Amino acid sequence: MTTTHKTSSEPLLSVRDLVTQVATPMGAKTVVDGLSFDLMRGETLCIAGESGSGKSMTALSLIQLLPKPMARVASGLALFKGRDVFALDDEGLRKLRGKEIGMIFQEPMTSLNPVLTIGRQLVEAITAQRPMSHAEAMAEALRLLEQVQISDAARRLSQYPHELSGGMRQRVMIAIALSQGPDILIADEPTTALDVTVQAQILSLIRHLQKEHGTAVIMITHDMGVVAEMADHVLVMKNGKAVEYGTVRDIFEKPGAPYTQMLLEAVPTLGEMHGIDTPKRAKPIAAVPASAATEAAARTDGPLVEVRDLTVRFDIKGGILQRPVSRVHAVEGLSFEIAKGETLSLVGESGCGKSTTGKALMNLIPWTGSIRVKGQETSGLGRRAMKPILRDVQMVFQDPYASLDPRYRVGDLVAEPLVIHGLAKGSELKDRVEYLFRRVGLSPDQINRYPHEFSGGQRQRISIARALSLSPKVIIADESVSALDVSIQAQVLDLLQDIQNETGIAYLFISHDMAVVEQISHRVAVMYMGQFVEVGTRRQIFENPRHSYTRQLLSAVPVPDPRRERRLYDAAAREIKSPIRPLGYQPVYNQLTDIGDRHLVAAA
Amino acid sequence: DDIKQGGQMVVTYKDDVSTLDPAIGYDWQNWSMIKSLFDGLMDYEPGTSTLRKDLAEDYTISDDGKTFTFKLRKGVKFHNGREMTAEDVKYSLDRVTNPATQSPGAGFFGSIKGFDKMADGSAKSLEGVTVVDPYTIKFELTRPDATFLHVMAINFSFVVPKEEVEKWGADFGKHPVGTGAFKLGEWTLGQKLVFERNKDYWNAGLPKLDQITFEVGQEPVVALLRLQKGEVDVAGDGIPPAKFLEVKNDPTYAKLIVEGGQLHTGYVTMKTTMKPFDNVKVRQAVNMAINKDRIIRIINGRAVPANQPLPPTMPGFAKDYEGYKYDVEGAKKLLADAGLADGFETELYVYNTDPQPRIAQAIQQDLAAIGIKAEIKSLAQANVIAAGGEPDQAPMIWSGGMAWIADFPDPSNFYGPILGCSGAVKGGWNWSYYCNKALEERATAADSITDPAKKAEREEAWRSIFLDIMKDAPWAPVFNEQRFTIRSERLGGPDAIFVDPVHIPINYEQVYAKDVQ
Amino acid sequence: MISYIARRLLQSALILVGISLVTFVLLYLLPADPARQIAGRSATAETVESIRQQLGLNLPFYQQYLRYATGLLHGDFGRSYLQKTEVVELIASRLPASLLLMAGAITCELILGIAMGLVSALRRGSGLDNGLMLLSFVGVSAPQFVIGILMLYVFSVQLGWFPIGGYGTFAHLVLPSLTLGVLGAGWYARMMRSSMIDVLRQDFIRTAHSKGLGRATVIFRHALPNAILPVIAMIGIDIGMFMSGIVVVESVFGWPGIGQLAWQAIQRVDIPIIMGVTLVSALAIVVGNLMADLIAPMIDPRIKLR
Amino acid sequence: MADVAISVPVAPTPGVFRRLLKRKLAVFGLIVIALIVFAAVFAPWIVPYNPDEQFFEGLTLEGAPLAPNVQFWFGTDLVGRDLLSRIIYGARTSLIIGVIANGVSVLIGSAVGITAGYFKGWVSTVLMRFTDLMMAFPALLLAIVLAAIFRPSLLIVAMVIAMVNWVQIARVLYTETRSLAERDFVEAERALGAGTFRILTRHIFPHLVSTIVVYATLGIATTVLLEATLSYLGIGVQPPTASWGNIIFENQTYFTSAPWLVFIPGFAIILLALAFNLVGDALRDILDPTQQGHH
Ligand SMILES: Nc1ncnc2c1ncn2[C@@H]1O[C@H](COP(=O)(O)OP(=O)(O)OP(=O)(O)O)[C@@H](O)[C@H]1O
Ligand SMILES: Nc1ncnc2c1ncn2[C@@H]1O[C@H](COP(=O)(O)OP(=O)(O)OP(=O)(O)O)[C@@H](O)[C@H]1O
Ligand SMILES: [Mg+2]
Ligand SMILES: [Mg+2]
């Protein structure tokens, strides 16, 4: 295999005037509108664009797996090796799928069949159009799993999807998509839900495999860092239409369409904030530096949220009497404070306990230690007693789709907190909901739609609107902007900061995107295996990372610069450790030492 | 006669066979099965209700009618090969009257001397039964008993071998050993029983079949289908009401049906201990209100109207008695006389199996016509019987499905438990709680007439007793059910044995298979 | 797993004790007098009293129960009042037939119900779908007696494919199983349809298509196992429902099962049989539920036994 | 996009009824239900004959019932009563049993199943073991005891049905709720401060509607027939009161000679259950927005 792409003059796939429509109560709505592009053998085409612009719909149209009966390809042509994909019958489509076009879907968590073993799902894909013996197929499956860098591959074959971490599942999906050696791999946001370290591994893996097999890749992403790292050509979409198409260098260096320019401007880059104390948009409050301001505030009012020795352990029960047999040490002895108007970011790899910390603050799970909100201890409070506290603390959940009741109209969902707390009704309620919709960049005429009618990013904004509706004092934002395209992400981040400036709201910002964290945070806490390894102000962490783990996180961030040398695939990538321990386990607490100016670092 | 022995037949039943112990078995189904496995001293001529000798070769009755001496047939063998002797007869009677046996028929032997001591447990053997020699047995009674020969013909008096009873204990009923024409071959619980010919049967020439298979658990409607296909020879439960007309009007079926009388009366009881049925006028009004013809029509004419307790084939039946005519106006007037011109409300209990609830509804409508609002309580048999035995419950009961079928063809059997004072107790079967002391004395007197020569006199005595009962009207007799037996073409024998009054559904010993002739 | 089963069995034992107590109380409250029942219509008062003595019916309630419970612990279910046979023997002779019939019925239900539900879900909204769903209503509403006799008429009498009732061979089993299974098939078809429709919308179905699998593979290997779960949960429940249907079906087909035994016993208030059958069927139901709970995680590995 | 109304989340969707009326099959179902209810309520005014009157000319001379004819549209029954009148009156009993008693049992079952599925620990264990107990409970026996002790009445059958019929639905809903309770949106509701009652009724219940519809509508048919069995054992309506179930039950052995006596009431039961099913199905689709396609 050579490292240069051998591109024949004939395009492998050429799409012409693709129009895809979805049915809505108000009639058909065009979500992909006259899209055309060519894909050459072995090249990577990235489709970027704002959330809801029709990226996923394009991908699903190409493989003819649009959600039935709501969506359909209304017109257009997709010539693949001279055949029109849209004209194929069932049998033709079956032959096309998997063998010629493989797909990795946007929702990795639900895309594997929960009741079949990994091995079976792989073998099935391998043998779908290539007869071979079971033993051969198993051997091939093992080889594929090893290729996508899953540790202990032989054992994984007999495991079920839910027994694997999110990152592993994503890699299994990739293995399935690659199993038949397709000519084209369509990857729809393959890394959105993953933390940077895993993301880096997967991206380099795709690139590595592409080199080996000469596969053409259509990569859908909103992350310009990923685009820069992966693409040969880029297609930028907006409102279902292509706004720009070009090589990756052209797009990054001389973007033509204003939308593309806007998109690129919005991209946060790591290190962009070097030497600045306050978050990006924070108005320099008077002459006082922000950190001093918050410290002053903290001193006068006391911290808004004060956490001491927070520990969360989940019992794993067993035996006749259902007694605990082992425990998940999800969070171990965390202590931190959040002051009024401050943003504390929580970063760390998948499964390190970030979401769990957030849920403990909401009293959604049992925990020990002490949490005070505005000075009031929440330990042991019942649901009723928590209610007034929840007016002040709200959470935006990690998975926006799952956290919205699919049976409710989004308008009602956003209104619900106000109704529960009896804060508004009638036209006042309606006004307030419309205001919130506008505030998060949604149009109020979407109020009567249901969650499934929105794209991933739009749902995330609905969740944010919901959390904002109560005007809380603290919002726990769990991966709240991860699914948003950069322009909207920038808008939402701006929004969050504007609200902070106006109302002095505090954020506990959970994210894996270090660039975003750099922009928004006052302080950052780096978490590993349920404990902090490094805590400090944004500048301390980003400009002077001391712990090896912090550095590892920073180095894994994709850089939106196509000229940068693409990272090589690291075959020896580290696996996530299990936080499950036997019953009597005594955790070893990290000793955090203050290396000056409240920059706490654990001994490595 | 030239009828060849051999062949077999299949009989089906819906219900499982409960027990074949003659001291215990007391339902219409095992009654005749027991009769073909065991013998008693007396029996009836096939197809009739005429007494004849069976294991007894001869008998004498003392003049005072209190001593009966039976000479036993010699050489009669149990199925286990041992010869039956007078000791066995005595043992069998001791056993049936011993309370530990829990025999429902112990009461039939109440006239034998020493019965009371057996009943209260103070004696282990009946004083009045003596073995004179191995082939002679003597019974002494406390009072003359005209029914005693009948008693010697009912199953409870049948002879059982001591060694087998002791061997099987409580399970004797599942492993019956007697002297009868058949012996039990196999018994698969819940599925079937096979009776095989007793080759050593003392009465040579009987039985005529080699084998009878009883298949249990068969829905009557299905049994009929199988009979049509030739898989079944006798539908033990008879023709189901739902199929009766269909079968009767179908020429291929019609010739397979044998019709006969039955010692049965269907009646409505009125609890004389409860208001307003304590008033004889009310009871008479009910008698006049019921349109019996219509009720018989509802059951497709499978009965004849009844106006007195005794069925027509029973000695003592009053042919010329007219009874209470169907007369709505007259009934209303009687009610008015009783001060109930506006009628009253009451309850009518009924056994919940077709066609009984339908009959009850017809009665209900008839009663409504004279202003009596009867609410129907349709319940499981056991619950109806339980309520009937209480002095203050079940003011009216339609007796259908539980009604009195005689244990033996004698009028006295229609009196004691169901119309006499002894039955008018808690848990008794006299559901009217009717107790007339004067009649009680006349009944005892009638039963003391033991001289066969005075048979007519005794019949007359009973006839007048039942007519006097009708004056008090504790019952409203409605009809006497007719029997309709359906059997396959293969079976032969006189019609009478297919509607034998004491063998239901048929007389198993007498029937023969045409296909072996 | 083992410990879970052990714990559930322990709970089941408690349930059975509860059931035995409740049944005993109910039967005790019943106005029918067992001694009278045994004694029959011609019995004298003495006979009745002596029977009462022998059966311990004049003891206080709790003593009667203790007596019965002690017997139970020794495997003694008592002796039928009217059949005069050991209840254990009666039940043992009939239980295999009933279990066989239930197994046959469950098989019919599953095959019919799943097939109908599947076709309906795949052809959702079509005439076939509507027809099948109507059929499932007919199945649920039709009296089993009528279904049974009709089947006998058509398949045995007219076509001669199967024997007219009876017990023994596979041919005997077919019609009764179908008759008993029709009701459940109706339920299963509806359950199956609704859960299949849900499953067909799931992301992993899309994944399966994207692999280039055939339609049949996607439906049977991917959709079916996910959709069948609520149906499996129902099998345990079904055993309870069978207890009523089995009475009719057994008598129509002359099937020597416990349904007939139970029905006769109820009609005649034969208390030891009622007790015995109740306990055995309670055991069957409890075991059925337990099995459903144990099968569920085999089909869906996410389900944890707790 | 004219009216952008924010409905306070009282019901998940506004104008459910209006949307129901847009579906042909649902409208058909509603009409059938309305007709049956109408017949039941106004039975005395619309029946051609007194339902309890045994006509002399209602039976042949042999005592056979009459097939449908000009005088008796649905024929007569085994004692010569007009079947049409009995079916109309029978709707009263059958509606009470099939709709009200069955409804109550669905309610109880839902309450138990949802509660046991939502709460963990002893609440769940106690409720589910109680459900197991009830499932194994000899209901027929209870019926017989009640029959012997109390005066039989519709109320008692209704109570018995409500008491024993809830277990199945409880068990099925329990399993479903268990998985629903783990879903993120439920946690999100809790985080908003929504009370348990609100979560159970507004957010869990709507997701169970499809299962409940299946059970509730099939339950109509089974309870109507169950009523007949229970009445037969003496606890329910007693003759001559008619119910669809007992008309079938009494006459089922006659179905070859008098098929109208079984098939007409059978058809009535299917019609009632089907009508509710059509409405229920439509309701389910309306409440589940993900089910909506091209309409
Ligand atoms: N079932 C539906 N009914 C109505 N509109 C829908 C439906 N599904 C998707 N849409 C709309 O189609 C448009 C395109 O959706 P698509 O999922 O392709 O967006 P996307 O570009 O992939 O966005 P994201 O980056 O957020 O995933 C969105 O505006 C969305 O609201
Ligand atoms: N309810 C629970 N029961 C048992 N274990 C749990 C539970 N919730 C979380 N855990 C475990 O606790 C650990 C921390 O989980 P958490 O969801 O807090 O991770 P996270 O840091 O938010 O990861 P991600 O970035 O993937 O969202 C994980 O190992 C997880 O498996
Ligand atoms: Mg998308
Ligand atoms: Mg998380």
TrEMBL record, chain A:
It is a peripheral membrane protein. Residues 13-264, 305-554 form the ABC transporter domain. CDD domains: ABC_NikE_OppD_transporters (cd03257). The keyword ATP-binding applies. Gene3D superfamilies: P-loop containing nucleotide triphosphate hydrolases. Keywords: ATP-binding, Nucleotide-binding, Transport. One of its GO terms (biological process) is transmembrane transport. GO terms for molecular function: ATP binding; ATP hydrolysis activity. One of its GO terms (cellular component) is plasma membrane. It is found in: Cell inner membrane. Pfam families: ABC_tran, oligo_HPY. Belongs to the ABC transporter superfamily. This is ABC transporter ATP-binding protein. It comes from Rhizobium altiplani.
From TrEMBL, chain C:
The chain crosses the membrane at residues 12-30, 99-122, 134-155, 167-189, 227-253, 273-296. GO terms for biological process: transmembrane transport. The keyword Cell membrane applies. It is found in: Cell membrane. Residues 95-296 form the ABC transmembrane type-1 domain. Pfam families: BPD_transp_1, BPD_transp_1_N. It is a multi-pass membrane protein. SUPFAM superfamilies: MetI-like (SSF161098). Its main location: membrane. Keywords: Cell membrane, Membrane, Transmembrane, Transmembrane helix, Transport. One of its GO terms (cellular component) is plasma membrane. Belongs to the binding-protein-dependent transport system permease family. This is Glutathione ABC transporter permease. It comes from Rhizobium altiplani. The lineage of its organism: Bacteria, Pseudomonadati, Pseudomonadota, Alphaproteobacteria, Hyphomicrobiales.
From TrEMBL, chain D:
One of its GO terms (biological process) is peptide transport. The chain crosses the membrane at residues 25-47, 95-118, 130-150, 156-174, 212-237, 257-279. Pfam families: BPD_transp_1, OppC_N. It is a multi-pass membrane protein. It comes from the Bacteria. The keyword Iron does not apply. Residues 91-280 form the ABC transmembrane type-1 domain. Its main location: membrane. GO terms for cellular component: plasma membrane. It is found in: Cell membrane. Belongs to the binding-protein-dependent transport system permease family. This is Peptide ABC transporter permease.
